[in-house]
Amino acid sequence: MPKVYFKGALSLLLALACANTQAAGNDIIVGEIIDQSPAWIEAGRDYVAGAKTYFDLVNSEGGINGRKIVHMVKDGGGKPADIQRAAAELLGDGRADVLFGNIGDATMRALTEARTAEKQNVVIFAPLTGLPSTQRQIKTIRASYADEARGLVRHFSGLGLTSFCVVVTQGEDQKASLAALRAAINGPLTCEAAIDDGGRDASKAARTVRAAHPQAVIVLGDSAVVGNFIREFPFKNLGIAVGALSLVNYTALFEIAGPAQSRGVVISQVVPSPQKESVPVVREHVRAMRKFRDEPPSHLTLEGFIAAKTMVEALRQTLTAKNVRRDDVTAVLGGLPDSSLTLLTSEYAGSTNGGTRMIEMTMVGGAGLLIQ
Question: Cα separation of 204 and 193, whole Å?
């Protein structure tokens, strides 16, 4: 994969991670653990940029009831020991009041297994992962990978497609998505092709799928996996539909497979289109990105923006005491009902997921755009 693909992402995240922001006595300190490994750096860059844009907007307007938001970022690199060290630094010397927007499956797996939220009495709010959690103090906004997988099956089934192959990376994290796919298909998969985490053996997966002659293929993997697979699999020539999950960045597909080969891939999304300015939160996001960031909005910058806004609005409505402690922030965010977590997107939620967490389908089109 070309190194240039990660250059911009690395620059922004390193700048955030290395910033020596000093908190004043009664600021709201937001800690965030990112993952700068290749699988997550691109998605994480956009999500962090969107969240930081909203925090900058709030601070420019006086903060949360007069309290400035201090955004502190540490890199866990997807490694359990480094993730735990980052959490300890943020919650210890960093005095973080909340762990917000933690990036990546490995990050959330490590925090969940260590029961960090429970032991530190802190809320983990709006992580960028589709892994489910049953821990009370982990508050998830986005739909799960399993929900997205079901949504893709229903989308293709609605087009009259009935035979499906799945291309899937190995590991525990994909089991729920694979089970959801099987249940949604309501019949046997036409084939199941394994692929490694970087998509380096994509040609083998492509041969397996091609031999099975399905009508649709759903790839459960990141941008590198999907990009390498479609580079080896001429799905348009074969008349086979290809679907992927929302954490796949379509501009990354252009880098890996090329624009022509990427065109036609269906990608599920968990927030509205960042160009749909008729939606109030999208319009607010676009204006804030123009003011505070020198880059175009994306689905993931919008997702980070919505997550930050959801958290801030909950704190703004409830935190009125002169002195605010972590316990106060935990009480507010930990007590939020599911309806409050999805309030900004629920009216646009499609019926594909059977709940209030939004899922809609987009397609990679020409001229570097996504088509609704």
Answer: 8
> CA 293, CA 54: separation in Å to the nearest integer?
11
Cα dihedral 249, 250, 256, 259 in deg (nearest 10): -170
Residue with tokens 């009259």: 160
Give the Cα separation of 288 and 297 in Å (integer): 10
Would you state the CATH architecture of domain 4-142+276-341?
Answer: 3-Layer(aba) Sandwich (3.40)
Domain ranges of the chain: 4-142+276-341, 145-269+359-371
The pTM is what?
A: 0.89
Tokens of 103: 């990036």
- CA–CA distances in Å: residue 293 to residues 48, 55, 288, 330: 12, 12, 8, 30
CB of 224 within 8 A of CB of 39?
yes
Q: Contact 230/255 with Cβ under 8 angstroms? A: no
For 151-178, how does the pLDDT look when each residue is reduced to its tens digit (9 = 90+)?
Answer: 999 999 999 999 999 999 887 767 778 8
What is the mean pLDDT of the segment spanning 356-370?
Answer: 84
